[in-house]
Design a protein that fits this description.
The complex is a heterodimer of chains A (270) and B (292).
Chain A: H1 2-29, E1 30-32, E2 42-43, H2 46-53, H3 56-89, H4 95-101, H5 104-107, H6 110-123, H7 130-156, H8 159-166, H9 171-182, H10 184-200, H11 203-209, H12 216-225, H13 229-269
Antiparallel strand pairs in A: 1-2
Helix pairs in contact in A: 1-13, 3-7, 3-10, 6-11, 7-10, 7-11, 8-9, 12-13
Chain B: H1 4-33, H2 48-55, H3 57-90, H4 94-108, H5 111-122, H6 127-134, H7 154-178, H8 181-189, H9 194-223, H10 226-231, H11 239-248, H12 255-282
Helix pairs in contact in B: 1-12, 2-12, 3-4, 3-7, 3-9, 4-7, 5-7, 7-9, 8-9, 9-12
The chains are: A mainly alpha (270), B mainly alpha (292).
């Protein structure tokens, strides 16, 4: 009985997650799906869908999304990594407060923070500029990145770095050859999370970017609002292709690597 | 390695970044909200804008409406997410792993995805009213209750649940995986039933992470603009839309008032988060920090 109920919940949950995504795929493929049809009355030809997917608007917004995401990842890691090291390996007064401060950008209401920051960005003459947008994206990514990295560094511990220093390696060598490789899992998590957060930003990109960077998320918006669901769905499909597929591949690749490493270990033991 | 100059160097990028983009913004809006705004010739500091904000009934009503929605959607998301996370971690097999993988999907997608799907499904000419009409359960599509852009915010609630329940599942599952299963076995061995094991062993270990998730989700829901803009009802406006509309009017005389609203809301969410952290610390499992 318990088993039946569990399977029932599994199926319902899978449907809740997958039906919206399936609907989006159907919307993108359909040419006519007006009231009162339950199923698209006319599907677009494969050529039409392909030409929509590779239209200049879609490709340019894909370019904008990826450019901003890559910049955000770079800036976020540059700031988050040293901060995570300081929080994990050092004791200093005010550390407790810093640990709370990190979360402030997530706690202050997004709309309040954005309208406040827009002021400063204009003052710094960064409005509509690449660096202005990635700075604001990074602000929302930093809490996640610092948390993921410091959790991971805590797990690794400072001993390996200490050994490397005792053996005469310089700080720089220790950092690049010991600390960074050992925190691979944390880095992977931080990069993935930053990528997702940056890709999904809407208001930050629009407000700070002043319409100069029309990313996938930004372009989907007016289409959805105007009831042009098919066009919005095309952007959604591209979004899924560039987020879910790479993340799934990275995840599977790492799992495969882990398994093959375990296999090696067991052979060594024999 | 643990020397002071090195520590300063490590903290430098974060401090510089926050000073430049975060604290400067907060300070600037603090001055402006207190009435120092030379651009339009305001130089005298006063609390006028704060008293005006706190007496503005439209603002207070919008605030209460938004708080109720954010709190209830976050509470439901935590409850459902916690239940599903426990269910999925009861066993470790192919199906539970698949469920966990599935739950990661909505975390990775923007809110507008589910907005798009909900509009196609639940609007009055959407697929579900079409189906009900086909089945003869309703005569006209207008008989179907208004579920998007509705005054009861049902569409917004559903959107947030679709996004945030998976977030709770992922957070809680990651903690559950770190918990030593022997605690559970010992409790069961000593005669505790499943409910007692859950209540006295697992929940205290998970509770701090759950409270963290609650704070993050609540603050997000409270201050996020996209979903209320697309699925909200004009007669029952929510705070983010209210603030945004005030901001894009480009009426400079409104800016000090807007900044005072922003700061009031920021202080409120910070205080609320602090309160929740205190509650978490006071509950069983809070003092040790559980597993985060």
């Amino acid at each position: 009985m318990r088993k039946i109920i569990n399977s029932f919940i599994y199926v319902i949950w899978a449907l809740i997650v997958l039906v919206p995504l399936a609907l989006i795929v159907l919307l993108a493929l359909s040419q006519r799906w007006a009231y009162p049809a339950l199923w698209p009355t006319q599907f677009s030809s494969m050529a039409t869908v392909l030409s929509l997917l590779t239209s200049t608007e879609v490709l340019s917004s894909l370019g904008a999304s990826v450019a901003l995401a890559v910049g955000t990842i770079g800036l976020t890691l540059l700031i988050a990594y040293p901060t995570a090291m300081a929080l994990t390996y050092y004791q200093f007064p005010g550390k407790k407060w810093l640990n709370l401060l990190i979360y402030l950008p997530l706690i202050i209401p997004g709309i309040a923070l954005l309208t406040n920051i827009d002021f400063v960005i204009i003052k710094l003459n960064l409005n509509g500029r690449y660096f202005g947008i990635i700075a604001v994206h990074s602000l929302f990514c930093l809490p996640y990145a610092i948390k993921l990295l410091s959790d991971n560094l805590k797990l690794v511990g400072p001993q390996y770095a200490a050994v490397s220093q005792n053996l005469g390696a310089s700080h720089w060598q220790t950092f690049w050859q010991i600390t960074v490789p050992l925190s691979k899992n944390g880095l992977q998590g931080a990069v993935m999370m930053t990528y997702i957060v940056s890709m999904t930003q809407y208001l930050a990109t629009l407000l700070i970017g002043e319409g100069n960077y029309l990313t996938l998320s930004v372009r989907m918006f007016p289409f959805t609002q105007a009831g042009k669901y098919q066009l919005a769905a095309i952007y959604a499909i591209v979004f899924m292709l560039v987020t879910l597929v790479p993340l799934f591949l990275i995840d599977s690749w790492l799992a495969w690597q882990e398994r093959s490493r375990e296999a090696h270990v067991s052979i060594d033991r024999d | 390695m643990r020397t002071k100059p090195r520590l300063v160097l490590l903290l430098l990028p974060f401090s510089l970044f926050m000073a430049l983009f975060f604290f400067s913004a907060i300070l600037k809006s603090l001055w402006t909200s207190l009435g120092y705004y030379p651009l339009i010739g305001l130089h005298r500091l006063s609390l006028t804008y704060y008293t005006a904000a706190l007496q503005d009934t439209a603002f207070l009503r919008t605030f209460m409406r938004t708080f109720t929605l954010a709190f209830s959607s976050t509470f439901l998301a935590c409850l459902i997410g916690l239940g599903l996370a426990f269910l999925f971690s009861q066993q470790h097999n192919r199906w539970t792993r698949l469920m966990f993988k599935l739950s990661q999907l909505p975390v990775m997608l923007p809110h507008i995805f589910v907005v798009l799907a909900l509009l196609q499904l639940l609007s009055q000419t959407g697929l579900i009213p079409r189906l009900l009409q086909r089945l003869g359960l309703i005569d006209q599509s207008a008989q179907f209750p208004l579920l998007v852009n509705d005054p009861g915010q049902i569409g917004i609630l559903l959107t947030y649940l679709w996004k945030e329940v998976p977030f709770v599942i992922v957070t809680v599952t990651l903690v559950l995986r770190q918990i030593d299963l022997r605690y559970q076995k010992v409790a069961l061995n000593l005669g505790a039933n499943r409910w007692q094991t859950f209540w006295h062993i697992l929940l205290p270990l998970v509770q701090p992470a759950l409270f963290n998730a609650f704070i993050i989700i609540f603050s997000f829901t409270f201050g996020s603009y996209e979903v209320p803009y697309l699925l909200g009802n004009q007669q029952a406006e929510l705070l983010p839309v209210y603030i945004y509309n005030l901001y894009v009017q480009h009426d400079l005389t409104q800016i000090p008032l807007l900044m005072s609203l922003n700061l009031l809301l920021s202080v409120f969410t910070i205080a609320f988060a602090g309160l929740l952290l205190q509650v978490s610390r006071w509950l069983p499992g809070g003092r040790t920090g559980g597993l985060r």
